[in-house]
Amino acid sequence: MDRAPGLSVRLKLTLSYAGFLMLAGVLLLAAVWVLILRHLPAYTPVTGGVLVRQTLMHDFAEAAAALLFFLLMFGLVGGWILAGRMLAPLTRITDATRLATSGSLSHRIRLPGRADEFRELADAFDGMLARLEEHVAEQRRFAANASHELRTPLAISKALIDVARTDPDRDTGEVIERLHSVNTRAIDLAEALLLLSRAEQRSFTRERVDLSLLAEEAAETLLPLAEKRGVTIETSGGITVTIGSQALLLQLTMNLMQNAIVHNLPEQGTVRVDTSVRAETVVLTVENTGEKLTPQLISTITEPFQRGTERIHTDQAGVGLGLAIVKTITQAHDGTLTLTPRPAGGLRVTVELPATPPHPDR
């Protein structure tokens, strides 16, 4: 924003200090005048002669003028020094802001001393820089991973087309089938990226959504996949109403359940889905049997394109954005996502969203 030039805060504080000191001096001199000089008689006998009030008032006026001039100079010099010392932390914060504006997010103010308003501001600014640096790094990793993921199917498609062009006798049905598979994966990835962007921007209409109904719908949709893999789906819980996007919350539930089905035991696995209501929140819990997971894997599993070897080689490979989309949708609905490894193996995922009071006519 373009602004007209003005006085610096340090100069304003200096003038304020000097003005306040001058005002205090004037009031003190006025008090002396009212309390002492005003009640003196016109002629006051003193040792060695007579003291005339007019002479005393003249001398007092000269002394008062000299004193006020001294107070003015003292206020300006002292105020300038004090203002500089008081505003020194603000200068460090301003310098850090300029560095951040130029792209340097690793700099921190780390203002020493006991807590006060400036240090609270500096600590809050350091925290903002840390979160911003982390977010920028995450976005850069996401952009690099997305570029790689999008480039892979395009490169495969180009290779298949080149093979078909150089080998006319090759079975075109096989090439078409592989191209269809590769293009389907590219479309799924693009749709997932669009869904992730939509959730991050919170550009969706909010309405009353019952998580228990979404869980039943997702279970019914994914039942063929579960039967194919020998996984049993168990659902439980009552009405759990929240406010949000039904489409996004259904996608969240589908992603969680599909992830639980795919990453399960080779046979006789189980997926349990439960919805419950707490004091101010509603909870969707999805847990599955499976291999034991390490804390290191749990800490990174919600990042985009974080996929293990098993996920890559499965027939339901996905695009590596399933739990990342779940995390983003949860945050877009002001909720919390918790991932906990089960002691016997598998994963428990808990999504907690703000509860909605029951509808008046129900």
What number of domains?
3
- CATH architecture descriptor text of the largest domain: 2-Layer Sandwich
Strand content: 5-15%
Count the strands? 9
Spans where pLDDT lies below 50 across 5 or more residues: 308-317
Based on CA atoms alone, the radius of gyration comes out at 37 Å
Measured between the Cα atoms of the first and last residue, the distance is 53 Å
Order of helices and strands: HEEHHHEHHEEHEEHHHEE
Helix content, binned percent: 55-70%
Could you tell me the CATH topology label of the largest domain.
Heat Shock Protein 90
**General shape:** elongated
CATH superfamily grouping of the largest domain: Histidine kinase-like ATPase, C-terminal domain
Structural class: alpha+beta
Biggest beta sheet summary:
5 strands, mixed
Number of helices: 10
Strand order of the largest sheet: 4-6-7-9-8
Short synopsis of the structure:
This protein has 362 residues and is an alpha+beta fold. It contains 10 helices and 9 strands. The strands form 3 sheets. It has a 5-stranded mixed β-sheet with strand order 4-6-7-9-8. The chain has a two-stranded antiparallel ribbon with strand order 1-2. A two-stranded antiparallel sheet has the order 3-5.
